Amino acid sequence: MKTQFYFKSIIPRLFIILLVGGIAFSTGGCKSKKKLAQEAAAKEYADRVAKAIAELEAILNDDGTMPVVEMERRLNDIKSQNLNDTRVNELIKQVEAKIAAQKEALRQKQLDDQKKQEAAEEQTYHYIDEYFKQVANSKTVPEANAKIAEAMKMFSSPDVPVLIIISKAGSDVDYDKPTTIEKYLNYLKDTKNYNNSVYSVKMDGYGQIVSLELIKN
Amino acid sequence: MKTYKSLIILLFAGFALQGVAQDNLSPERKQAIDSLALEKVRDLSKYISLIGDKDTPFSEANRVIDRAVELFMEGSEVGVSSLYKEEINYYQVREYLERLMRLNYSKVDIEWYKIEYVSDLERQPDGTYVGVITIFQKFSGYDQEGGLVYQDVTKKDITVYVKRKETQIAGKLIGFWDVLLGDIRVKETTKE
Known about the structure:
Radius of gyration of chain A: 41 Å
Number of domains of chain B: 1
Number of strands of chain A: 5
Largest interface: A-B, 24 and 28 residues
Largest sheet of chain B: 4 strands, antiparallel
Order of helices and strands of chain B: HHHEEHEEEE
Oligomer: heterodimer
Radius of gyration of chain B: 22 Å
CATH topology of chain B: Nuclear Transport Factor 2, Chain: A
Number of helices of chain A: 6
Number of helices of chain B: 4
Shape of chain B: globular
CATH architecture of chain B: Roll
Helix content of chain A: 55-70%
Number of strands of chain B: 6
Helix content of chain B: 25-40%
Distance between the termini of chain B: 71 Å
Largest sheet of chain A: 5 strands, mixed
Structural class of chain B: alpha+beta
Number of domains of chain A: 2
């Protein structure tokens, strides 16, 4: 009876001790796992930051071999990681400025190239403008007709289309009603007025003009 | 029911916006169209002068008549007045030009001046721009000895229609402004 009572009182105590002990030990294990995970995350973050800094510095130190598109791709990749590191953010700003400068330089170069090409084309087709002016300035009908016959030799047929640009703003191009070279040359003879310039010319394999674009001066 | 109402409202708003977008020509583009219409009237003045000129060869005058007719809308009429008659006669464009070519003078001078808009080009609901250009025409007819037989100055109003059209040229879609002249109405005729 006494022994039975003894067991009855000791078992709950033991159970409580084991429970407390278990909780204590298990919490200790959790704590160390969390710490490990935190350390791993911190290391991973540090690696990512170091990699990002290295990449951003590589872009900044590039001597012009890396295309702007590649720079933008790498920058966007780094920005998408949201590293929120002071040094990384500072380098991102510098890279963004470098990309913007390179884009502006590219745009300027394209504009300059286009202007050079237009000037070259204008010079190339200056002789066509001269023919048109001569037709418009002819004193008599026979003189104008002779000039027209001469000018017609440059074109593949009397029906070659002539387009006249009346206004051009970006992608908005407005034309006058399309005409043909034969009608246009006679128009110059009748009105004695050539107030356009050659804008573009298309030629066939024989060097004859197959389409002509003029622009209002 | 509510959904249907919303859809109908959206549909109407869409059409309205489309209309606004089409009307939204920049001042530069509008000016280019204004100038184009004026240029067509100046071209007509040169054609009329050539057709009336007795020195213009017959074949040339007929070719120029064809070019001049192309400037007009089909069915357009031209008013003819005289200092000696109160009534104004209206002729179809080709008939007017052919009569002009056959006028019974030894020499004819026709000069158009003060060519300007009296009513600016305004967009109509169908997208056509319509305006009125006024001109002053000085007509002088001479006899064989070079003496002035008849002279008058007539103020005329020309209705102009400008519409955006598209056409394919060598596989490329071209958007162009088609300028057509309508009736030429006589406003007043004076001696000078």
